[in-house]
Amino acid sequence: MFTGIVEELGEVVAIENLGDSSRFRLRGPVVTEDAKHGDSIAVNGVCLTVVDTADGEFTADVMAETLNRSSLGALAPGSRVNLERPMALGGRLGGHLVQGHVDGTGTLVERTPAEHWELVKVALPAALSRYVVEKGSITVDGVSLTVVDAGDDYFTISLIPTTLALTTLGIKKVGDPVNLEVDVLAKYVERLLSRGSDDLRDLDDIKEMDR
Fold first, then answer.
1. For the chain, where are the E strands, in sequence order?
2. How far is CA 201 from CA 89, 135, 197, 206, in A?
């Protein structure tokens, strides 16, 4: 589980094509300080498993499912990436609950600079728009952000100087893809409501049997 508070702006060092998957080598001295084989690190919001670490770098295998559902397949050596280690139990939850399971990709369609911040418009698939609400949370390339405006096929976000300076969102160009993860709580609520009242009565029956 992550919080969407990026710890480090890392870099893709090398990508090895393995046919139906790829092995990424990434540089991230901060996130590899205590990382070991089997640990998780979010790369642009995608939860990846560490294969090994050495000299401030780590490798991770990226399966076809991840390449197909995220923008990681568009990365190349030299690409900058947002990196975050999993949250520690008992620590502060600075952003919101983020799983690192990308729901789809969007496209940056507009940047409007202001004096000290920037308004960014992102187009998203219609299937995801119902989970995005004004003042709600969304994860864009692993960054926890608050939605300013939510439309049928887009949303806008305001980026403060810190976010612009310390994440890839400061260097993304119009037309670039971004990974999106919507609020998992919204998906659970939708699932429960779609099942109807019969399932809720079944749950009450189970609770009665356990008493």
1. 8-17, 21-27, 40-43, 46-54, 57-63, 80-84, 104-113, 118-123, 137-140, 143-150, 154-159, 177-181
2. 34, 33, 6, 9
Burial label, 76 (beta-carbon count in 10 A; 0-12, 13-18, 19+): exposed
CA 100 vs. chain centroid, Å, equals: 5
Give me 37's structure tokens. Answer: 């084989």
What gap in Å lies between CA 176 and CA 15, rounded to an integer? 20
pTM value is 0.82
Read off the pLDDT band of 87 (50, 70, 90).
confident
Q: Could you read off the pLDDT of 28-50 as tens digits, one per residue?
A: 999 999 999 999 999 999 999 99
